[in-house]
Amino acid sequence: RTFNENYARAMKLFPYDQPNQHQYQIISRILQLKEKGVLLLEAPTGSGKTIASLASLLARRRDGEKIIVIVRTVSQMEPVMREWGRVVGGYDGFREKYNQDEDIMILPVMGKARLCKQLPYLRQHMKFSDMAVHFLCKSLPCKLFPTQQKFFKGQFAKPLAMRLNMSLAGQSKKGTPTIDRVHQFYSGLKSCGYYKQRELMREASIIITTYPYLNGNLLEATLKNMNVDINQVYFLIDEAHNLVSPSRISLRIEHVEKAIFLFGKLRILQNLHNLMKLSKKVQLHEIGSAEEIDHLRSVISECVKKVRDKYRITIADLSDNALISLNSFLSTIYNGDIIARKNRMEIVQSTPDVMLSELYGARLVVFQSGTFQPINLYKKLFGIHRAETLVSKESDVSNQFRCYLRYKGLTSAFKKRSPVLYQTMTEVIMEIVPFSPRHVLVLCPSYDFKDEISPIISEYIETHNLKTKVLEETRSTSSEEMSNLLINADQPYIVLAIAAGKLAEGVEVVHKGNSLISMVIMAGLPFSPPSKDKAIVMQAMTHAARDKRAAKQFMIQIPLERKVRQAFGRTIRSNQDRGALVILDYRAQDYLKQSLKLTRVRNIEQLKERLNILYEDFPTLKQLIDTG
Ligand code: SF4
Fold first, then answer.
1. Residue with the nearest Cα to atom 1 of ligand 1?
2. Which pLDDT score, from 0 to 100, does residue 531 have?
3. Which of 138, 192, 198, 305 to mutate to test the pocket of ligand 1 (most atoms within 8 A of CB)?
4. What is the pLDDT of residues 312-340, one digit of tens each?
5. What percent of the chain has pLDDT over 70?
6. Does residue 122 line the site of ligand 1, with CB under 6 A?
7. How far apart are CA 128 and CA 146, in angstroms?
8. pLDDT digits (tens, 9 = 90+) for 381-407
9. Which pairing describes strands 400-405 and 599-601: parallel, antiparallel, or unpaired?
10. Domain Helicase ATP-binding spans what residues (predicted)?
11. Where in the chain do CATH 1.10.275 domains reside?
């Protein structure tokens, strides 16, 4: 098909009148990509990049080809399902498209930890971990296991997939199709939800799943279940900057001791045991040869699968994770740096290039993110030098005001923290808050910092006789609880939360698509705390990027910028929203002023003036809710 034909197809699927300028750029670029092309795409949060990417990939797709959308967490599947709901046009639209032979069935794919029907019982009564069920379900006498079922495998898969899709499409008319609805669907079946999902994968043309499915074995199994080769698949990887955060696989000394008890003193186990007592970077040959690693893995998997008596193993031994941890440690041993640290050993994977290499045989791969800078460094870290890039910049920022206040030495730097600083910071916060027509997010760099200013805020409210309500994030607060309270509130709250916490990261606090948060105050800057292996990660990054300065920027400045952008992103969820970002830390001048285009504000009066201009004629929380 020509570009124009594909463009016409994309526009037919596009659910709005006209694509905005970001969406137009994205659609054009994806439609122009060569076969086996890879695109790194950056566009601002809220610019509608997911719908643009999805419509373009659907337009390019030919018969028998499929789309896999990969998101970070299961809850992040919902925004993608919402966009799908808009593309299909609700229940009626879905039926109509289906009757016209348009292949648009979707399937969210989750692991056993979410779909196993026995898990609640096994967790409670047999102390099973989620990981243990993953390995053990075939060994358990589970009546729901497919071979125990009287129906033939695959029977009724199509009507079932259809039923699930109609239900999700129907839900999309009123809002967002939810993962809860998917759970309800599987719980209503008599068979195992996990294995039923596998059968439905063949029927779906769009699969949404999470990052672990990018790993070799799982990816291979997914493609097999979908009945496609990798060159028939289009990948869309959402918020792909997250792929670079270093991941750790950890093994404890008790796990190795348990393996020695079960399998005897194999040389490789003894080496692991001895090395674990040290604190150093370990070379692979110090642990054992490739043959020894393979041998131990096969012994473990035999044992886990068959629960053999001769190893004197019991369900309890398996369920405490020892062998499962050892197995996942051995399976990733080639993919990162191995570090022994007193009774523990870790594999630190700093760059995702090895994991992603499998993907590059696909028909197209689109990595998308709201923050992908420096984009050339990402190309190197993803191991794809031929990738194309598209950076779609924000054009209209008149609905935003971003600034840092350089005032009375405000900062969250450790050395400057004092009772006087906490007091001054609180007073400044409380002076700015009344200017926000909707909820205000006050984000602290840590729980410790928040615990210092929280009582001062309460005292301020009491002594000034204010009616302001405060909602505080704690380690145990659930994000649903917080967002529900804010969505149903009839007066603005001060939400005292953590910059890298649940609320700042991605909870939607919206009313009919408009944000209920209109101001974000950063009470200091959330730099990542120094960690022991930062040097090792840095070394790996420098090696991958061949650029020490860029690696340093990547390790310190970029994570900070991302946290601030992500938090501020809560304020702008639609074209009608307005948002202010106020950073109470002078260090913003060095680290964020340029990249976030911050205005420097010298005193509170100047800040108040700017806030008055920003919020002129902007509906308050109450007005927004009252007007429906
Ligand atoms: S067959 Fe299904 S329900 Fe049974 S243990 Fe395995 S995952 Fe759980």
1. 145
2. 59
3. 192
4. 455 555 545 677 788 888 988 887 788 88
5. 86
6. no
7. 21
8. 888 888 999 988 776 677 899 999 998
9. parallel
10. 9-285
11. 247-349
